[in-house]
Amino acid sequence: xxxxxxxxxxxxxxxxxxxxxxxxxxxxxxxxxxxxxxxxxxxxxxxxxxxxxxxxxxxxxxxxxxxxxxxxxxxxxxxxxxxxxxxxxxxxxxxxxxxxxxxxxxxxxxxxxxxxxxxxxxxxxxxxxxxxxxxxxxxxxxxxxxxxxxxxxxxxxxxxxxxxxxxxxxxxxxxxxxxxxxxxxxxxxxxxxxxxxx
Length: 198
Prior knowledge:
Residues 46-143 form the Methyltransferase type domain. This is Methyltransferase, putative. Pfam families: Methyltransf_11 (PF08241). By secondary structure, the protein is α/β, with parallel strands linked by helices. The chain has a single domain, classed as Vaccinia Virus protein VP39 (Rossmann fold, 3-Layer(aba) Sandwich), CATH 3.40.50.150. The protein is built from seven helices and seven strands. It has helices at residues 9-12, 16-33, 54-59, 73-81, 101-104, 125-135, 159-168; strands at 44-48, 65-70, 87-91, 110-116, 136-147, 172-184, 187-197. It has a seven-stranded mixed β-sheet with strand order 3-2-1-4-5-7-6. A hairpin with a 2-residue loop joins β6 (172-184) and β7.
C-alpha cells in the first residue's frame, strides 16, 4: 500500500502468479455475489488496492461503474493505459487522515467493495473495514482475499482475525475460509476469503 509497489508495476501483468491470483479471486467473487447475474449492470463497485487492475478488468464488464483506487502511482498508470470504459482509476490513499471525500469524488453508496491481497498489508485493518462498511449501501457486499498467516509469522491474516474484524464492523452473512492456494517457492500458500454484507 505504499509507493514501494511502483517498482512492480511495469511487469506485474506479465507474472503468471498475478494473473492466476486474479482469476481465482474473480471465480470466488462470482460464486459469492452472482456478479454475472441480472441487476449488476447498474451497480457501483470499489476496487481497493487495485494495482494494475487485473481483477478490475474481469469485474468491469458486469457492473455499471468501478472505482479503482491504489496508492501506487505507477500501478494506476498501467491501469489507466488499459482504457476500460467504466473504470475510474484513482491514485491516492482514501483511508488517510488527510483524505477528504471530495478529493476523489468517491462518495458512499457502493454495492460491492473488494480488496485483493491488500488488507494484510494495512496498518489499520480494522479501521479500514469499518470505513468500507460505511461506504457500502444497505445490502452491499465486502469481500477480501488475503494470504493466510502461518503460525508465528506476521505476514498475512488469520481466519479468526478476519472474522473478528468483520463481526466488529457489524457485517452479517459472514464467510471466512480458505478459498484457494497458490504454489510459490516450492510451498503452498493458502488464500483466505473474508466476506460479509451490511
